[in-house]
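Record minuted for everyone:
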Amino acid sequence: MDTVCIAAITYLEPAWRTTAACIRRCEVDVFWADRRGVGSMARAYNECFNTNRLADRFKYVWFLSNVEFEDGVLSELLRGVERSGFAALHPSFDSDHWHTRPAKSPEVFATPFVEFTAPLVQSDIFAAFPLDERMPYWGHDLDWGHRVRQAGHTIGVHHGTRVSHSYIRHDQEKHPATLERARQRAQHDAATRRQLRHKYGRKWRDVLHLEPVMSTEEQAANRKLNFWVGFVKTTRFLDGWVANVRTPELRQEVADFVLSHQHDSVLDVGSGVVSILNGLVPTQNLRAVDPLGARYATIFDYQAHGLQPPQACRAEDMAFQDQFDIVHMSNALDHCRDPVIAFTKLCDAQRAGGYLVIQSFENEATQQNWAGMHQWNLRLEADQLLVANRDQLFRLADPRMRMVSARSLPLETRRRWVIWIAQKAGERCRE
């Protein structure tokens, strides 16, 4: 059985040659799905899949409509679906749906449905769940996603890949087939809703878990979790984070600071699945906290690796008082619901003479266009730590804390990385 093929809808518009050229560069087997210009996409895909026995011949099928894409998109989708195990994975594009729109993060994350604009699908899944040809227009996307998820599979979007989907619709000299499809879309929109209501009832939106299904905060949490779902399976994670070595992503200057100071008890807040300090600080001396701690235990076998999952807790809700030699937070303070309260809780957690170490990308909310969990910018100003949302700016200060070091370091990606260290007033940690 070969790995992948393409099942592509043919179009009558001359501009479709753009898609055909992209397809030819993929250098994989291509099977053409004929919708006769304006016919049912669901029927065309099903006929192409069955007539050519694609389930028997290929592990994956990339279903393509009128899209443009760069070389390498198919390879990235294949890596993403094999790493995640998803039943279907769609590249990002300028869609009507928030979960499919391009984002700066290259994450793969689960979604309630995928559009059949350009999804890469496991062929055995499609064989078991063909498109419902009775569903007009966009209905077959929602219906297919629901049936596949009900069977226990996961579908999603890969934001590390992107396609473009608008060139035929925006052609100034519209082809008659383009105009006819536009006319049919207007008619089929109401028919789609009627068919979904007939199949799933009056509350079909709730049944199909259509947006808004999650708050912005829940969406951000799902994105974060889906990053870890893939990352925990990689050699980089297992050999670099889980093994008893210094984590590759940990800055050398931070590692040197931790090792050169008392670290009998260390707290890592917003740790992720495994603390970035694992391998540097002995396991018995390290405690981790993360809001998704309970969910991490469902995607990583802590017992098999002799580790403990993070305590499930937000930084703002911590109740530690004067307990730790070092409190550390990396790339997480600007993700907090209220970083001002979180900062106070971090200060509470250290014992007198202990140190607070905060690391973060600088002004990440602006970089990420205020998407998902990125609702706060963090930066340095005259060695002071500042956080700001769209409306307010706060200086993170506590009378118990004395700044020891404040640095903003350039990164190869033209972004900057902030490292801010402060010591809590009182006698130094015991030597």
User: Anything to note?
Assistant: The longest strand covers residues 350-361.
